[in-house]
Amino acid sequence: MLKHRESLESSDVENAVWKLQPLICFTHFFQKTGIVHHTNLNDLIHTPAHACEHALRFIGEGLNNVARHAHAHQVRVEAKRVETWLVITMQDDGQGFDPTNRTLSTGHYGLRGLQERAHLVEKTVSVNSSEGKGTTLEFRVPLAPSGSFDPPHMGATPCRKCAFCLPDFIRFLRGCSV
Fold first, then answer.
1. The pTM of the whole model exceeds 0.90
2. Which is the CATH superfamily of the domain at 11-174?
């Protein structure tokens, strides 16, 4: 005899949505760009909401930069919990660039946006790149909130500046302020 399943707790639904979100995003990214991706985002599953949101926004902006500027064939994205930090590493095999060259700006926010996000939340972002050798970005955010910073609300619809912004309902389910 089949047993009726107990009703799902909201945390079960929340976890299921968060487990699927990166897969959906990367599938969309691959279909849109043709860039092959290798991901390991398992450490995001039980990450506090504040750190997870910043990590996913960093990943979104980073992938947007890869798609627009890198001319990459592959990108690797990894989230790892290291002691009291969540460390996101994104590495592409694109054309690379000289990070000391300040004349690279083409009217887009790109790396400046990633650095501003890190500065706003008192976290760190590092850029390692050289021409012809791809780019590696690393974003570090503490697992415990460090202050009263509240991530900016995206509005009722996903942001149009970045191809990868998270839908508001995901943030709502995760418990972020709206």
1. no
2. Histidine kinase-like ATPase, C-terminal domain (3.30.565.10)
